[in-house]
UniProtKB/TrEMBL annotation:
The gene is LOC115275848. It holds the Pfam family 7tm_4. InterPro entries: GPCR_Rhodpsn, GPCR_Rhodpsn_7TM, Olfact_rcpt. This is Olfactory receptor. The keyword ATP-binding does not apply.
Amino acid sequence: MATRNRTEVTEFFLLGLSSWTEMQPVIFGIVLAMYLVALMGNGLLVIVALSDPKLQTPMYFLLSQLSFIDMFLTTITVPQMLVHTLSVNRIISFNCCIIQLFFFMAVGSMEGHLLAAMAYDRYVAICDPLRYSAIISHRLCLRITLTSWVVVSLNSLLYSVLVTRLTFCGNQVTHFFCDITPLLKLSCTRPVVNEMLIFTEGVAVVVSPFFFILGSYARIGVAIARMHSVAALRKALSTCSSHILVVLLLYGSVIRMYLRPSSSYDLDQDCQIAIFYTVVTPMLNPLIYSLRNQEVKGALRRLFRKLSSQETSNLVPR
């Protein structure tokens, strides 16, 4: 393939799920349904966490931020993928591709930071409950959230700038959105700096929250092992189970997708993982937290009762 200058590449063609041509109408329907469920589920969690008086705690503030991130993450990629699934024109401009890459990496990294903050919240609640209100506050959670946004935005900006400096030998992106790995595959020369960045700075920003979570749960595990009360043990396990499941869903797919050499990239397999990460996980997160959390279920019932009573009052003639 002849080498072309980067400035000649003004747009990319997203191959997407082109290898699944016969299944694309079915895929469209399934992904659209999951996308709508993800938006509605996370939207409800944001509403109840921010409006219900009984959920005005730091933990539920972080949960509302996680739901907002899930809505943002899935919206960055899924609507475009749905349009391209039933369309022949799968072109995205170079600038739009870089913008999508920036937001996807920033929002995806932010999810890990929020889960780390939630793990710290659970650690203090279980290991130092008497000092919980003195340590964990809305102000602390807000500061953690804002600081994390700054860190992940700078990290994502660095990746995006380095991608713009690559020399591309083609414009066919073997993915349904602009992600870092398929873009590196288009580079005419091996992008050593970018790959080193993924395995060094990328590990520090993306994977370090995971190790923080592991450390928090190691301490929580020690505290749970020392509990002599069955009720306290059951409450501690119930408090952590939803969070642990969400962490496994997130980092299982992230580690599989990014922490490996780009030479092992496989279109079909990575598209499946990406769909799981961008659609299935955001859809499952609110279900996990609502089905396994009595406080959230109670807040949802109160919200539906309030909406039902308002609708009834509007129907009554005045």
